[in-house]
Write a structure and sequence with these properties.
The chain has helices at residues 8-18, 21-39, 47-58, 63-73, 105-118, 150-158, 181-191, 212-227, 242-249, and strands spanning 82-89, 95-102, 122-124, 133-142, 162-168, 171-177, 197-204, 231-236. By secondary structure, the protein is an alpha+beta fold.
Length: 250
């Protein structure tokens, strides 16, 4: 993939999003709330909550905000968020999958639809592009935090469901099937290795390469979607080529 890892486009978009600190805090706090709603307020018995709390802590979300989010997720203040997804195409045929958490579905639908239409995209029905992605657990681990031979480490992780791994830019990136996320997370804990991030991602099975100008028009739409307060994650199958990466770094 033009010298980049298969997750390069995901890492690029997440890096851009994470610069928006207030937005990041909101996204992580909402995830804590929904995790509580789904599986209860005990992180020991709720892997999704444990992951959400860990990611929030790593992003320096204050402990009192995390605690407050757990209380809200328990329904103590009547706040309720629903998970909704949208699918469609950005300009030039790039597939886009959008994950949202919302307390007002009508508002979210209208905002996402407007973002697609105003940026020369087209929103489709559920299932229109999801078949182009695989739901996977993605763990990014700082390589120097692995206190054993990397190949030996990978073999250990296979017992927890490791599917693939690669090393790039000082990070060991591991993937697993969605169903194995909990077991691989437990295996990392057993090995005493703390992942820098651990998330469920929609990983494209194939990517689409565009010219720099066309790719920039796609990324403009992605940015607009990520700016919406209801949007948690945006996944796409745009190929992050060396040429595009260099142009974005200028």
């Amino acid at each position: 993939m033009a010298g980049h890892s298969k997750w390069a486009n995901i890492k690029h978009r997440k890096g851009a999003q994470d610069k928006k600190r207030a937005k990041l805090f909101t996204r992580l706090i909402k995830e804590v709330m929904v995790a509580v709603k789904e599986g209860g307020a005990d992180p020991d018995a709720n892997p999704r909550l444990r992951m959400a709390m860990k990611n929030a802590s790593k992003a320096s979300v204050p402990k009192d905000k995390i605690t407050n989010a757990i209380s809200k997720g328990s329904g103590e203040d009547g706040t309720s968020f629903d998970e909704v997804t949208f699918e469609g195409y950005a300009p030039h045929g790039v597939a886009v999958f959008v994950e949202c958490l919302t307390d007002n579905n009508n508002r979210t639908v209208a905002n996402v639809r407007a973002c697609f239409s105003k940026n020369n995209g087209s929103m489709g029905k559920n299932g229109s592009v999801s078949f182009m992605f695989e739901r996977k657990g993605i763990f990014r681990i700082i390589e120097e935090n692995i206190k054993m031979d990397v190949e030996e480490f990978a073999l250990e992780l296979m017992d927890g469901g490791l599917d693939e791994y690669e090393i790039e830019d000082g990070f060991f990136t591991a993937s697993c099937a969605f169903e194995d996320f909990g077991s691989l997370n437990s295996k990392l804990e057993e090995l005493g290795v703390d992942a820098e991030s651990s998330n469920i991602e929609m990983v494209p099975t194939t990517t689409k390469e565009l010219s720099v100008d066309h790719a920039k028009s796609v990324l403009k739409m992605i940015d607009k979607l990520e700016d919406d307060d209801d949007v948690q994650n945006v996944f796409h199958n745009l190929e992050m080529t060396d040429e595009l990466a260099a142009a974005l770094a200028e």
